[in-house]
Design goal:
The strands form two sheets. Strands 1, 2, 3, 4, 5, 6, 7 and 8 form an eight-stranded mixed sheet that branches. Strands 9-10-11-12 form a four-stranded antiparallel sheet, covered by helices on one side. The chain is built from five helices and twelve strands. It is 21% helix and 33% strand. A hairpin with a 7-residue loop joins strand 5 and strand 6 (100-109). It starts with 6 loop residues before the first strand and ends in a 12-residue tail after the last strand. The model has no long low-confidence stretch (mean pLDDT 92). It folds into two domains: 7-177, Nucleoside Triphosphate Pyrophosphohydrolase; 180-224, no CATH class. By secondary structure, it is α+β, with helices and mostly antiparallel strands. It is globular and about 50 Å long.
Length: 236
């Protein structure tokens, strides 16, 4: 059996702002030359450094919040409202991947609506867009992204403003997600806990479907026949 790669802690934050047209989020496009997620649209984020751990006094959650705020400032020049930064989930990279991260995903209003500044190196483009428009653009093949990004956006679709997001997400226990990669014919998919094929890795196993399936370059999230013990990642 191949050696399971060690996990590196990472953190990301969905930056949000209220507009007359609805709730908007800042999307960043990574340099297509990068090995990891090259050319894809992401939220600001990156690895948790030792300085973040020290600043958090060894508390992993505190370090993740500090890292998310630091990365947002470094990658786009914006700062999240730390008092209203809500953890949405924690995703762990599948064991088959050569680089593995355990990533805290937060959402927060921006503290101040300053101009976005990107370095043109790691990040090549940015867009403030309504959450619904980002999801629509992904489904049409215009904005490539990874499953955690897409599913996180879907989980925010029901909120009209940042106050609703904070009220709705603060009491929710953030799920810990370990996807399992699989293929079904020509389709690439990732299965989550509650899927009939999750434990044995066989995507064709009859039964419940809790997975994200890629169709023509975009992801579709499925939650069908799953036990209530495993809630949907998209509640609204």
């Amino acid at each position: 059996m191949s050696e399971v790669k060690s996990l590196r802690p990472a953190s990301t934050v969905v930056l949000l702002r209220d507009t007359e047209g609805g709730l908007e989020t800042l999307m960043l496009k990574r340099n297509k030359a990068l090995m990891f997620a090259g050319g894809l649209w992401v939220f600001p984020g990156g690895a948790i450094d030792q300085a973040d751990i020290d600043a958090g006094q060894g508390d992993p959650d505190a370090a993740a919040r500090i890292a998310a705020a630091r990365e947002a400032q470094e990658e786009c020049g914006l700062t999240p409202d730390l008092n209203n930064m809500i953890q949405l989930s924690q995703w762990t990279t599948p064991t088959a991947e050569p680089k593995r991260f355990q990533t805290w995903i937060f959402a927060a209003p921006i503290a101040h609506d300053h101009a976005v500044t990107i370095d043109g190196g790691e990040i090549h483009d940015h867009e403030w867009m309504r959450v619904a428009d980002v999801v629509k653009a992904h489904k049409s093949g215009e904005m490539g992204m990874m499953p955690p990004t897409y599913i996180t956006l879907c989980s925010l679709l029901g909120y009209q403003n940042t106050a609703e997001m904070i009220e709705g997400e603060r009491p929710v226990a953030p799920p810990e997600v370990l996807p399992i990669f699989a293929k079904e014919g020509d389709s690439v998919l990732v299965m989550f806990k509650g899927d009939a094929g999750y434990e044995n890795g066989e995507s064709t196993t009859p039964g419940a479907r809790h997975r994200a399936v890629m169709h023509d370059g975009s992801w579709e999230y499925l939650y069908e026949g799953v036990s209530e013990a495993q809630p949907s990642f998209v509640q609204r």
